[in-house]
Amino acid sequence: MNKQKKLILRIISVLSAGLFLVPFYIMLINSFKTKKQLFLDTLGFPKTFDFNNYIVAWERLEFLKVFFNSLIITVGSLTIVIIFSSMAAWMLQRTKSKLSTFIFFVFVASMLIPFQAVMLPLVRIMGKLNLLNMPGLIFMYLGFQSSLSIFLYHGFVKGIPKALDEAAIIDGCNSFQIFWYIIFPLLKPITITVSVLNAVWIWNDYLLPSLVINKEASHTIPLRIFFFFGEYTKQWHLAMAGLTLAIIPVIIFYFFAQKHIIKGVTDGSVK
Amino acid sequence: MAKVTLNDITKVYHSNEEGDVLAVEDANVDIKDKEFVVLVGPSGCGKSTTLRMIAGLEEITSGELYIGDNLVNDVAPKDRDIAMVFQNYALYPHMNVYDNMAFGLKLRKFDPDIIDERVTEAAKILDIEPLLDRKPKELSGGQRQRVAMGRAIVREPKVFLMDEPLSNLDAKLRVQMRAELSKLHERLQTTTIYVTHDQVEAMTLADRIVVLKDGIVQQIDDPISLYSEPNNMFVGGFIGSPAMNFLKATIKEKGNDLVLVGKGDFEVTIPDDMAKTMKDLQTYIDKEVALGIRPENILDPAVHDDDEYDADNLIDAQVEVVEPMGSEINLYLDVGAEESIVAVVDVNSGAEVGDEMEFAFDMNKMHIFDAETEEAII
Predict the structure, then answer these.
(1) What is the pLDDT averaged over residues A42-55?
(2) Which domain holds residue A147?
(3) Which of B77, B92, B94 lies closest to A170 in CB terms?
(4) What confidence tens digit (pLDDT) does each residue in A100-117 have?
(5) Which pLDDT does position A266 carry in this prediction?
(6) Do B78 and A170 touch (CB under 8 A)?
(7) Is the domain of B249 the same as that of B123?
(8) Are residues B32 and B147 in the same domain?
(9) Cα–Cα dist B91/B251, whole Å
(10) Nearest Cβ partner of B92 from A164, A166, A177?
(11) How far apart, in whole angstroms, are the C-alpha atoms of residue B88 and residue B168?
(12) Which structural domain, as residue segments, surrounds residue B258?
């Protein structure tokens, strides 16, 4: 590749990176403005960096409480999604039968069903089963997220030689021990990828919690942020501060996992 | 330590597309305590399947498998008291060498001091002490192979099972590890069942060799007997490198002698004492048989004294290819038969491509096989 081409590519990358950062910029600078300032000059820098919005948003959101609700739902869902889908993928990959192929395809095919098509019947059925609010939500996330997760794990398990399972059998492992001592540690790169994809999705999800959570005490961050948008007033400045607070944990999580995410995405591409 | 007995062991794979596939048929093998037995055969002959049935990784369709005096058909692999070395070593990538070796003992809840003692001892035997903290990916092929051996040794099992453990190593290392395996067996005296497709490995390591073809045991014997007295054409051709030559010939009576007459007008006399041991001799007269002769039993009269070969059994041949091997020369000879035959002769032979020469068959070391059943007659 010659220098000119490289330069052009670099400019394009910088521009597209900038484009992706614009919403963050708008969110961040407007979180420091008063409501009036925000409407007068949306794109400009704030005159003073006033943390008042954050204090108000923190209190109005009951941030700690909703933060922990979001955290419990995300971590809870993630944990069971990882446990169930990695085990299922391992078994489906290792069992060579028509039934296992069929089950795998059912999982993959369910990725194609739009959420909106099933949400109302789902909520009604789950309501009748008394499975709403946090436990129900976590259970539903297991259902919705496991298809993609199983698909990702399944591809990864293929790359783990079956001889390792057999060596473990001869060393004296039962199925659970093979999985937990040998297979699961080797799934680490893909587990991180699965975690990030699911965590971001669950953390940010608004629609499903809005249908399932009917107790204020169980509200998640996205649900509570919506409180700033009333019928007659839209408190953008507070919403921006609230959103900034809400994404901080996700960004911290991403930074910690970044190295592994990239590894997870590229693993298997180069032998 | 224990003997291993296979009684009529059969393995059938059920497959929807191809119907039932018979992988191993009625295998009967008695492996003595402390014996080193090698299962050898071409790929797909059922040798690995047999080993995996002994390990418990494959179910036995029918027949009985004993380890020691216990029937183990339905015993889980972990309770069979065996250890296995895999072709690709199957080391746990996320554990260091020490943990790889200690894993089986930890699962069996051994005392940590005993685990430490055994791992250190095995590492000393295998010369891998400095590697104990490393992960498998930081090791060379030969080192990984040693760790895989170490993992088997620390368990102190009754039987070692090895599935082509040297086939992933380069040629030089393979020879070196082969010698070390021999030494190790000498030292540990553990019953060992070893699978390979490499007949040189089989010959050099084994106390006894089991030759398999298409799931059927062809012959079980010690290496020298297997080489000098093959049961059939397959064993004759499989063991030995270069392989045994086969020539179609007809047995005829000539005066008091029996001779073999083949294509290209060659005629060799069957020695009297061999003719006497021949089974159902009369039935083969005037019938086609296969003459088997090993390359080193084809002699070049130029480099042998007169009393070392029989001047009556000379055949004409044209040299097609000359392969100098250093200590000897492989000659590919056209004797008028369908395929050329190979002779291994002394480096001083002086044979060159295109030469018309005479060669002598060392008839005391030839074999005769039934052309149809391929069974050995002599």
Answers:
(1) 80
(2) 69-270
(3) B77
(4) 999 999 999 988 888 888
(5) 58
(6) yes
(7) no
(8) yes
(9) 57
(10) A164
(11) 7
(12) 245-302+311-370
In this prediction the ipTM stands at: 0.84
Q: Is the per-residue pLDDT at B17 higher than 80?
A: no
Place of tokens 């999982």: A107
Flag whether pLDDT at A268 surpasses 50: no
Q: 3-state SS string over B262-288?
A: EHHHCEEEECHHHHHHCCCHHHHECCE
Q: Is B86 in CB contact (< 8 Å) with chain A?
A: yes
**Average of per-residue pLDDT values in chain B:** 89
What does the alpha-carbon distance between residue B268 and residue B279 come to, in Å, rounded to a whole number? Answer: 19
List B40's β-bridge partners, or say none: B196, B211
CB atoms A173 and B78 under 8 Å: yes
What are the residues facing B356 on neighbouring strands?
Answer: B318
B156 near A CB under 8 A: no
CA atoms within 13 Å, Cβ hemisphere of A7: 3
Residue type at A217 in one-letter notation: A
> Hey, is A89 helix, strand or coil?
helix
Nearest to A185 among B94, B104, B107 (CB): B94
The verdict on pTM exceeding 0.80 is yes
A163:B104 CB<8 A: no
**What's the order of all strands across the beta sheet hosting B70-71?**
B19-31, B4-15, B62-67, B70-71
For residues B339 and B225, membership in a common domain is answered with no
pLDDT of residue A226: 81
Find the closest chain A residue to B101 by CA distance: A171
Domain membership of residue A11 (yes or no) is no
User: Is residue A262 in some structural domain?
Assistant: yes
* Count of domains forming chain A: 1
- The Cα of B183 is separated from the nearest Cα of chain A by a number of Å equal to 24
Distance from CA of B53 to the nearest CA of A (A): 12
User: What is the domain count for chain B?
Assistant: 2
Residues B353 and B209 in one domain: no
Tell me, yes or no, whether B376 lies in a domain.
no
Nearest by Cα to B135 from B127, B123, B143 = B143
Do B269 and B126 belong to one domain? Answer: no
CA distance B235 to chain A (A): 31
pLDDT of residue A264: 58
- Select from B212, B238, B264 the last residue of a domain: B238
CB contact under 8 A, A171 and B107: yes
> Looking at the structure, do residues B55 and B138 belong to the same domain, yes or no?
yes
> What's the pLDDT band for A270 if we cut at 50, 70, 90?
very low
Q: Is the pLDDT of residue A239 over 90?
A: no
Residues A172 and B76 sit within 8 Å (Cβ to Cβ): no
Q: Does B75 touch chain A (CB under 8 A)?
A: no
Same domain, yes or no, for B224 and B260? no
Find the mean pLDDT for residues B299-313. 80
Question: For residue B263, is it within any domain?
Answer: yes
pLDDT digits (tens, 9 = 90+) for A208-230: 888 888 888 888 888 888 877 77
Which of A31-40, A177-186, B252-261 has the highest mean predicted lDDT (pLDDT)? A177-186
pLDDT for A267 equals 52
The CATH number linked to A87 is 1.10.3720.10
Cβ <8 Å between A161 and B55: no
By C-alpha distance, the chain A residue nearest B79 is A172
Instruction: Choose one of B200, B216, B238: the last residue of a domain.
Output: B238
Q: B82: nearest CA in chain A?
A: A170
Beta carbons of B63 and B6 less than 8 angstroms apart: yes
pLDDT class for A269, splitting at 50, 70, 90? very low
- Interface contact flag, A171 B87, Cβ < 8 Å: no
Tell me whether B326 touches chain A (CB under 8 Å).
no
Mean pLDDT of B163-168: 88
